[in-house]
Request: fold
Amino acid sequence: MTHVLLEKKDHVAIATINRPKALNALNSEVLADLNELVDTVNADSEIYALVLTGSGEKAFVAGADIGEMSTLTKAEGEAFGKKGNDVFRKIETMPIPTIAAVNGFALGGGCELSMACDIRLCADTAVFGQPETGLGITPGFGGTQRLARLIGPGMAKQLIYSAKNIKADEALRVGLVNAVYPAEELMAAAEKLAATIAKNAPIAVRACKKAINEGLEVGMDEAVVIEEKLFGSCFETADQKEGMGAFLEKRKHEPYQNK
Ligand code: DAK
Reply:
């Protein structure tokens, strides 16, 4: 991967989008690298959580690459949108939890990328927005869909129609991010949360992600069945036996084995 750096700390992977000259803007190469990142992380059974951030102090991702997009035809635009949507959906449906550590501008495709992650933490210097209508296009990497689901249609429509950016405190107020940190503390906070998640039974954590994501896409009757099946599947795991056994024996559980 040329534009994505990958580091592992215990059971946590930290991926950094690294195209600082263009504020980490998403061109086809970065999208291809993100695709490869997901394949690499998914293939590593020792990774229990992923933190995604941007290189440099200024930007998480300043959007899709405007230079690359500017001359697209209708068919090419659709193809570019599909490429991004496919990668972002692949990120959203990764089995393990994902945390976007938003360290600066998260505009257009950058805001959309953060929304494809499970959890968003940001620096107090972060700026979010969907500037697309100001450029003559719609959000194309899931922004119209995920923003409305995350913060509600009223606020999503305001942000998307107005193309106005919001700062970290406003992103927290509208529920786009879970927490804001001083910029220099963001990565430590994101890694600490990822490590906390990674200490819990990995199969159970992955089942929770699947239950929440898949349950949100169906009616409640179907959703609770999804939960029941995943709940049941945990009782075939060694980690469930250790977790509950440790409680009953009044001892601390052994580190979970992902089994
Ligand atoms: N694309 C390409 N290059 C970018 C870029 C971007 N999105 N953002 C920044 N850069 C480049 C700048 O061109 C500049 O390059 P040089 O001139 O140095 O070669 C370098 O990064 C530094 O940027 P600035 O000099 O502009 O830095 P400033 O601090 O002055 O400003 C800024 C930072 C983030 C406010 C500004 O760079 C900016 O406004 N950037 C553009 C933000 C933006 O509008 N992003 C949204 C892009 S639209 C779709 C598929 C996808 C999408 C839509 C439809 N379908 C196919 C349907 C997604 C759309 C978007 O994401």
In short: Residues 22-23, 25, 62-67, 77, 80-81, 84, 105, 107-109, 131-132, 135, 137, 139-141 surround 4-(N,N-dimethylamino)cinnamoyl-COA (CB under 6 Å). The chain has two domains: 4-198, 201-248.
